[in-house]
Write a structure and sequence with these properties.
The chain has about 425 residues and is an alpha/beta fold. It has twelve helices and twelve strands.
Length: about 425
């Protein structure tokens, strides 16, 4: 028995059966882990190169005040992001409150009354339904402003239905969107190769259609990003992958300069755009988090692989399956009951460095249709690059595991979730 195994058993009270099962599954994943390590190394060099090319110095970490005019640090951060994502321009701001906000200003900045929006990966993430106008009224959704919406469901194998997409595009179609991550769906994440094929199809029909990617949870999972393969614009959250666990808040948008300019007017107001906006002294943590992000994402994706392997070995359905190509850091497990979902989240909470003593309970969270149980004891509130798990309390009771600033912490989350289920008699080992 290793020293870490002794600690888990003797000091942390983990069942020996749980430790043995997790270790067996970990050993079986060595080849997959090596592939993930190679991607992380590539992206580490890419990020380093962007920082060097943009001549980042200590002066870029200084504060600015008031309107934020001529903020050299803010401009440098946005040039680094544009470099990494291979785009003409970027907005990277702590005043973008989350991924939903980043996506909302992207949609609302580009779309105009009479335009048509198509999601070709099925329905969007729950929090975007009120933005689009799928549910809710009178809140200033796209629907309220005369933007129509269509969605194309994925094929049974989880791929984009290109033939139906072709038929769905009309003369009014202004934007086609891909949600890269699974959200609360039971599907595999959309790979960069699939994104390339879809957007090539769209631009082949009409080159003026804007191809947008919701890149949340997907950054640094591949050696290419969606904007390298045809996406005109993408958006995401700084407290997910690219913040590396150090960004305190914020979101980003990268894309064509004309589109980013339009989005900037929605971020602030017409006539002001991206010229104003304080970074509140956050440029240091944003850039340092970005520098660490490839390795942080690597630990999270390996933890997700381990989670899937462990629960599949116990007979649970998982998505993605072991061996599937991954394009986000999320592992879904179909636990089959509300009791099991809550126990799983209790285990994740007990593995946290912050608020480990708290018991997560389902509640009516703003922006979600169902009650949601969330386990997240993070240094940055709501940071889902840190270890977390969440689940809508609805059939078939899927739980979504993600994050971990280190692989070891992500692994500990798997161990504690399994131990909680085992000790409650909800699984047998």
């Amino acid at each position: 028995m290793t020293e870490s195994e002794k600690l888990l058993k003797e000091s942390l009270g983990v069942s020996p059966e749980v430790i043995a099962l997790v270790n067996r599954c970990e050993e079986e994943l060595r080849d997959e882990f090596r592939k993930a390590d190679d991607i992380a190394e590539y992206n580490q060099y890419k990020v380093l190169s962007a920082l060097q090319e943009n001549r980042i110095s200590d002066t870029h970490f200084a504060w600015n005040t008031g309107y934020g005019y001529d903020d050299a640090g803010r401009d440098a951060v946005e040039k680094v992001y544009a470099n990494i994502f291979g785009t003409e321009a970027a907005l990277v701001r702590p005043t973008i409150v989350n991924g939903t906000h980043a996506l909302s200003i992207t949609l609302m900045g580009i779309l105009r009354p009479g335009d048509e929006l198509i999601y070709c990966t099925g329905g969007p993430y729950d929090t975007l339904e009120e933005v689009i106008g799928i549910r809710g009224e009178g809140m200033g959704s796209l629907k309220d402003y005369g933007v129509t919406y269509k969605q194309v469901e994925l094929l049974p194998d989880g791929s984009i239905d290109l033939e139906t997409l072709k038929k769905t595009i009309s003369d009014r179609t202004r934007m086609v969107c891909i949600q890269r991550a699974t959200g609360y769906g039971w599907r595999k994440s959309i790979t960069v190769n699939q994104i390339e094929e879809a957007f090539k199809t769209v631009h082949g029909i009409r080159s003026d259609i804007v191809c947008m990617t919701d890149n949340c949870y997907g950054e640094f999972l591949d050696v290419k990003e969606p904007t390298d393969v045809g996406a005109d614009v993408l958006a995401g959250s700084l407290i997910k992958n690219p913040g590396g666990g150090l960004a305190l808040t914020g979101g980003y948008v990268c894309g064509r300069s004309d589109l980013v300019e339009k989005i900037s007017y929605r971020m602030t107001c017409p006539g002001i755009g991206g010229e104003c906006g304080l970074t509140f002294g956050q440029t240091r943590t944003i850039l340092q988090g970005l520098f660490l992000a490839p390795r942080t994402v690597n630990g999270a994706v390996k933890g997700a692989m381990l989670c899937g392997s462990v629960y599949k070995s116990l007979g649970f359905d998982i998505c993605p399956d072991t061996g599937d190509a991954r394009s986000d850091i999320i592992q879904a497990v179909r636990l089959g009951s509300a009791e099991a979902v809550v126990a799983f989240c209790e285990g994740i909470q007990a593995a946290a460095p912050v608020d480990s003593f708290v018991t997560p309970v389902p509640w009516a969270m703003p922006g979600y249709e169902s009650d949601v149980v969330m386990a997240a004891g993070a240094f940055v509130q709501g940071s889902s690059i840190e270890l977390s798990a969440d689940a809508p309390i609805r059939e078939p009771y899927n739980v979504y595991f993600q994050g971990g600033l280190t692989y070891e912490h992500s692994k500990f989350g798997v161990i504690k979730s399994l131990d909680a289920l085992y000790k409650k008699g909800l699984i047998k080992l």
